[in-house]
Design goal:
Ubiquitin-like_domsf; RASSF2_RA; 326 residues; protein kinase activity; alpha+beta
């Protein structure tokens, strides 16, 4: 990759920019960390726009269940072959066994009512003349009729189910199941989605939900950058998650990108996060010291204003004792 010096600016949020040179330095560090892995990022220039693209790891941090779609939006069950093409390929017996193909001259539907007496057509099932063979043909066609198509709409064959599974991504091995279509992904489990640096937070959310065929609206969720210190920073709708990940650094032991519910998580600033890691007794001691300091300040102010009140009262008494001059 060419990490040459650049001077132009790259947007990283609303009214926020970073120099291309600085971003390339972060990108170089990021790719060195993931050297030899598929998490390395690539960059390119398109119409004077600097674009970074690649996989972004996102951890599941949901507290409530999600709903999976019953079927893919673009799913189409291919109709069965027509009766003519089916007969031209092979013939199935009553138990699904393949029988010898019947040539077209042997069975003429237009000549069923009046076949020549001397023309006997040998066939494995022709033991009573041509009439039994005429009854076998519609039975064979009925197995691939429109009734079968309607039935397949409700009950999928094993091959259809395998095909649908191949086209549906799993959430940590969990495929769609009508009994477990509503479930909660394991907290902290990781997935990834391929995005670029021009995609905003709502676009990344929609792409992630569409990847796993999740019915929930993208407006229910948000992306958070969660640090090991406990700091939680919510990505705004105008932020670019891939740029934010690059600027945070590649190590996920320091910070991770989480998918969480908007109404279940509150942002935690760095100052507050410093106290989260302490045990409860330590926090109580902090509160006690702050309370003692507050009490000292209150007493100090009370003494100050008490003295001031006494001075004002004394002055007023002096004024009252002084005789008024005409």
């Amino acid at each position: 990759m060419d990490y040459s010096h650049q001077t132009s600016l790259v947007p990283c949020g609303q009214d926020k920019y970073i120099s291309k040179n600085e971003l390339l330095l972060h990108l170089k560090t990021y790719n060195l960390y993931y050297e030899g892995q598929n998490l390395q990022l690539r960059h390119r220039e398109e119409e004077d726009e600097f674009i970074v693209e690649g996989l972004l790891n996102i951890s599941w941090g949901l507290r409530r269940p999600i709903r999976l779609q019953m079927q893919d939006d673009n799913e189409r069950i291919r109709p069965p072959p027509s009766s003519s093409s089916w007969h031209s390929g092979c013939n199935l017996g009553a138990q699904g066994t393949v029988l010898k193909p019947l040539t077209v001259p042997n069975v003429q539907i237009s000549e069923v009512d009046g076949p020549p007496e001397g023309d006997q057509m040998p066939s494995p099932t022709d033991s009573k003349g041509l009439k039994p063979m005429q009854e076998d043909t519609p039975q064979l066609m009925r197995t691939r009729s429109d009734v079968g198509v309607r039935r397949r709409g409700n009950v999928r064959t094993p091959s259809d189910q395998r095909r649908i599974r191949r086209h549906r991504f799993s959430i940590n091995g969990h495929f769609y199941n009508h009994k477990t279509s509503v479930f909660t992904p394991a907290y902290g489990s990781v997935t990834n989605v391929r995005i670029n640096s021009t995609m905003t937070t709502p676009q990344v959310l929609k792409l992630l939900l569409n990847k796993f065929k999740i019915e929930n609206s993208a407006e229910e969720f948000a992306l958070y950058v969660v640090h090991t210190s406990g700091e939680k920073q919510k990505l705004k709708t105008t932020d670019y998650p891939l740029i934010a990940r690059i600027l945070q650094g590649p190590c996920e032991q320091v910070s991770k990108v989480f998918l969480m519910e908007k109404d279940q998580v509150e942002e935690v600033t760095y100052d507050v996060a410093q106290y989260i890691k302490f045990e409860m007794p330590v926090l109580k001691s902090f509160i006690q010291k702050l309370q003692e300091e507050e009490d000292r300040e209150v007493k100090k102010l009370m003494r100050k204003y008490t003295v001031l009140r006494l001075m004002i009262r004394q002055r007023l008494e002096e004024i009252a004792e002084t005789p008024a001059t005409i």
